């Protein structure tokens, strides 16, 4: 099911120039979850679990939930276009999501798309 989805996401995620990253991110999208970590200056590392539900199409809205196993009272629920999650999954390094994800979630900063346009119209985050 991965093969037909990659060309659908390519125009939103930098085209075919990053084909391997795009394939890996779309594969992760289909899994519906990803466990990562957030590095902190003083406290070291916080593990988190990110889960999402929705149709795996670029402009479809995903319902997402982010939880920290060590901090059960901290939970974020948000929605965003599937292509934006794929972009962030493409930009992950080791077990970390990019800074742009955290800036969007915590500060409300709008990330830039691969084309330079501001995405996430209609996206919401609730702590």
Walk me through the structure.
With 127 residues, the chain is of the alpha+beta class. It has one domain. Helix content is 31%, strand content 31%. It contains four helices and five strands, in the order ααββββααβ. The chain has helices at 2-9, 19-31, 82-91, 99-107, and strands spanning 33-40, 44-53, 61-68, 71-81, 124-126. A five-stranded antiparallel beta sheet has the order 1-2-3-4-5.
Give a nutshell description of this structure.
The chain is 31% helix and 31% strand.
C-alpha end-to-end distance: 33 Å
Characterize the main sheet: 5 strands, antiparallel
Using the CA coordinates, give the radius of gyration.
Answer: 14 Å
H/E element sequence? HHEEEEHHE
Counted up, domains total 1
The poorly predicted ranges are none
Q: Which structural class do you get from the secondary structure elements?
A: alpha+beta
Average residue-wise pLDDT: 88
The helix fraction, in percent, is 25-40%
How many β-strands, per DSSP? 5
Topology:
Blueprint: H1 2-9, H2 19-31, E1 33-40, E2 44-53, E3 61-68, E4 71-81, H3 82-91, H4 99-107, E5 124-126
Antiparallel strand pairs: 1-2, 2-3, 3-4, 4-5
Helix pairs in contact: 1-2, 2-3
């Amino acid at each position: 099911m991965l093969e037909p989805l990659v060309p659908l996401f390519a125009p939103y995620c930098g085209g075919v120039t990053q084909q391997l990253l795009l394939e890996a991110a779309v594969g992760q999208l289909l899994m519906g979850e990803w466990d990562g970590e957030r590095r902190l200056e003083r406290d070291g590392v916080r593990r988190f679990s990110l889960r999402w539900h929705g149709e795996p199409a670029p402009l479809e809205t995903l319902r997402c939930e982010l939880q920290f196993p060590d901090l059960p009272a901290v939970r974020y629920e948000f929605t965003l276009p599937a292509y934006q999650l794929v972009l962030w999954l493409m930009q992950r390094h080791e077990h970390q999501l990019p800074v742009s994800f955290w800036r969007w979630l915590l500060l409300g900063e709008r990330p830039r798309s691969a084309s330079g346009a501001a995405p996430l119209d209609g996206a919401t985050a609730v702590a």
